[in-house]
Amino acid sequence: MRIGQHRPSVDEHAALMRSLLVFERRTETVALDEALGRITARAVTSPVDLPLFRNSQMDGFAVRASDIAAVPAKLPIVGEIPARPGQPAPLAPGTAVRIMTGAVVPDGADAVVPVEDTTVVDGVAVIETPRVVGEYVRDRGSDLRAGDELLPAATVLRSRHLAALAAAGIASVEVLAPVRVAVITTGAELAAPGVDPQPGQVYDANAIAIVSAVRAAGASVVISARVTDDHDTFRAALAAATDAADLVITSGGISMGDYEVVREVLEPLGATVTTIAMQPGGPQATAVIDGVPVISFPGNPVSTQISVEMFVAPVLRELAGLPAARRQSRVLDTDVRSVPGKRQLLRGRAVGEDGVTVVGGPSSHLVAGLAASDLLIDIPEATVQLRKGDTVETLAL
Amino acid sequence: MRIGQHRPSVDEHAALMRSLLVFERRTETVALDEALGRITARAVTSPVDLPLFRNSQMDGFAVRASDIAAVPAKLPIVGEIPARPGQPAPLAPGTAVRIMTGAVVPDGADAVVPVEDTTVVDGVAVIETPRVVGEYVRDRGSDLRAGDELLPAATVLRSRHLAALAAAGIASVEVLAPVRVAVITTGAELAAPGVDPQPGQVYDANAIAIVSAVRAAGASVVISARVTDDHDTFRAALAAATDAADLVITSGGISMGDYEVVREVLEPLGATVTTIAMQPGGPQATAVIDGVPVISFPGNPVSTQISVEMFVAPVLRELAGLPAARRQSRVLDTDVRSVPGKRQLLRGRAVGEDGVTVVGGPSSHLVAGLAASDLLIDIPEATVQLRKGDTVETLAL
């Protein structure tokens, strides 16, 4: 923290993020098979009537309703119309034709008598109940007319929407392209998982943490790079990132110590480096480089993960049509101390319907503790002490 | 419906489905980058202590706590330890060493004094506050010990779990393989979307409906085939499906009419073909062919989609660690008539917090109406009439 500077609150920093994370949305056309969960870029109108043609709702007999006004009616069966390609011959007055569900109702017929309401004797259908015109007939366009809106813009495509598009013969759909994110983790101490670390090295947990959180929030990761604290290396990674992505997220290198590559490179480029009133995750930086927002989180893995969850994931989820993380009031099963002047996000686990227990300590290196949690306990800045039985706000992970 | 046969209720049919949809789960090992949303096949223990080594929680000075018991203490600064690979030299008594967050705390040092609590004068750190042993030092293994459980079996892998695996140096994880589903849509009348249909043909909406509903429920689709009502063609598709999949889903061809290829082929193989007390979606069939469950839904697209939602998706979602569809009581904004003796699933749309309106009619061909809905209104078998203001059970789509 710089002495004398205002220390932004979590809400102020979240508002800043929202103002930065505004993207010109590109669109792309994808096959239905690739469209699940995507968002329609514009309204889709049906090119056809649905149903495409007048068809039978039942297995039965297509008739003229006027021919069975007086019952019992006996109509000679003149043929059969399966649900197959082909246009059946018109139905002559005084006759019936066997018809299958979904088959074309022939010209001349205006009702269908279900097979279970018909007796067949020597090629004659004996019908005991009159039917009104249109009964068990699905009219062309009775679901939707050609030119009508089939789906509005901004529809998150579920199976039922894809089915409706397919039913109208539409094989591809214009959808919003996902926000493209580049991730750069920084630090000379970082080793890739799966490789034996040297003394003083730690495995890079932030790359997979940010990459997978971004994907879970519906955006796509176009670059994931790991760099040391060398300025030129970071500058090169940053240039590639701003070139390819709508948003760049970095971790590490923004505190007030030495060897803080992100701060040292970005600050001369106009970045705002600050410490917000949040624990963990105090150090934060934001910049716009070559028109692309660059969001920088601290290197401690818990700080980075909570920062992503608080500031980036909510915006990306909204842009991807995903629901917001659930907030819920829960009752503490233990006493909790907090830090005055900082909004603290403790790791916790739900207990029953509305209870919560604290998992691990507040320190920002406890990645296993975070993994064992299923929510964050959100303690306001001014709160210093909470008692067992107190109600706290929680945020589902 | 066959006269004299019991007509199963929705709950009975759902119970039958649950008894059929039991799969031997295969496992596979995937890289962390591919593991988001997957389910751990077994518990994962950490191969290392976390943290890997004793390191500093702050930018500051590593000292012996006993050297600053009497303040102000003045300790010559003997060097600097960045967060970089390498093992620092032990700290001599009566000295301090500059240290960065995450850097190795040298042997001999047992506390870190934050830089903001220190004044540096001519290469000497002036410290005004005593520190207890261990202050601002993260001990090796303080998050987790080697051999401790990092993640339990059956963990649905979120970003925080992947981060914990990465932090422990684990680069891949054994997860449950998704249930493999084959989809066969049947009907001589079906045309592929994007192709001009002949008279009497309809576009196949069921293929994409089932395929995408299965994927949304966390299973994988290994085959999607469209066949006519020719027996041999269907038999060949079925053989390929049971060979490749854990579950086969068919649509069409199971009613009591003629040209019902699924019923005609499966019934001699021991299939149960029935009509359940549900509208839409009455005709249903189940079989086990070559040890593989085969679930057959009617061809009407709305019937098929509602059948998938009622009988298959809940089981697949549970197997994939996805949450169940939300059920909620809502207040009708209109009168509704229902069919006696059938559980009716009307298409509806949420109105405000707890209201619901009916979308379209009850007929099973209204695919656009289903697409415009966001929930199903679940009306019990015995209910015939509901009034505006009545409370109904709804199932989110």
TrEMBL record, chains A, B:
Pfam families in UniProt: MoCF_biosynth (PF00994), MoeA_C (PF03454), MoeA_N (PF03453)
Signal sequence span per UniProt?
Answer: none
Give an example GO molecular function.
Answer: molybdopterin molybdotransferase activity
Keywords from the UniProt entry:
Magnesium, Metal-binding, Molybdenum, Molybdenum cofactor biosynthesis, Transferase
- Enzyme Commission number, as recorded: 2.10.1.1
Q: In which pathway does it act?
A: Cofactor biosynthesis; molybdopterin biosynthesis
Residue intervals of the MoaB/Mog domain: 182-318
Q: What is the reaction catalyzed?
A: adenylyl-molybdopterin + molybdate = Mo-molybdopterin + AMP + H(+)
List GO terms (cellular component aspect).
cytosol
Question: Needs which cofactor?
Answer: Mg(2+)
> Could you state one GO biological process linked to this protein?
Mo-molybdopterin cofactor biosynthetic process
Q: Which residues form a coiled coil?
A: none
By sequence similarity, the record places it as follows: Belongs to the MoeA family.
Annotated function: Catalyzes the insertion of molybdate into adenylated molybdopterin with the concomitant release of AMP.
Name of the protein in question: Molybdopterin molybdenumtransferase
Q: Where does this protein come from, organism-wise?
A: Lacisediminihabitans changchengi
